[in-house]
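pinned: reference chain
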Amino acid sequence: MDQRKNDLHQWLSQHLNYQVTSLKPASADASFRRYFRAVTDHGTFVVMDAPPEKEDCKPFIDSATSLSKLGVHTPEIIAHDLSLGFIVLEDLGDRTYLNELEHNPAELYSNAIDALLKIQSGAIGDSSEAPPNYSGAMLIDEMSLFNHWFINKHLGKTIHEPSFAVWLHTQQFLASECLKQPQVWVHRDYHSRNLMITESNSPGVIDFQDMVIGPIGYDLASIFKDCYIEWPRDRQQEWLDEYRVKAIAAFQLPSFSLATLTRWVDLAGLQRHLKVLGIFCRLNYRDGKANYLNDLPLVAKYCLEVLNIYPELAVFKDHFEDHIQAAL
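pinned: its structure tokens
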């Protein structure tokens, strides 16, 4: 018996006066949240089930409000009950970027760049609605997932000296490099599963509740070094240059080169992908979501690619290359 699903059905019926004819799973999520597509006499909606003891819905509502004011197409919030952890959302459909990118990547990514610029523009001027800062401590704490869940739990190994000292230095280096970049609003999971093709103001953007103010290269790494679909590096460069031209104009930034932007994306991306190696293993061992292990090889490939480019990472590469290769 799925008690929360029953409670959700009852809440929709009694508190919103919706006659529910169907309540079926709408999408998977790498968290404790679940999403259902509810067919009712008032229309079709997506309903979030976020157990309040495990998930806080307030950041989702706050972020949705802030992003909507910036012109980002987030799902409209129809109703919510934070004490129960239920939110009724506009149904953006089921056409994810991941399922359709191969047919028309140029147009879709151009639209995604435009939407990303809207998100990042939140950092312009003072805002009482600004998300928290992506602090150095937070960046380092995230990378600890690589050690705990990937190295220790998945590979069954322990990092000893001198490798551990190298690991600590690399975390500090990557966090420092992220903090040196221009700081913008960061979605933190801006990729093909979280972008929806919609009839107007496409893409629709979801899963934005963990927004922060952080490095300009982070979301670019999320989308062009996507953990679920791979593009050749020269294609990535074309899209990064399109972003670069638009960003300089939109934010009136001092001109920066494609090489500079590429470095920002590569190093922010390495921080992200080391973290993701840990997250995908945690999703398997802690949460029973084994399908994420299928995505480890691509994430490891992104890590090794960057380690082979930057001399500053040569020592880390020497100590950890075999470990990361194991994910392939």
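why pinned: The longest strand covers residues 20-27. The chain has two domains: 3-90, 97-325.
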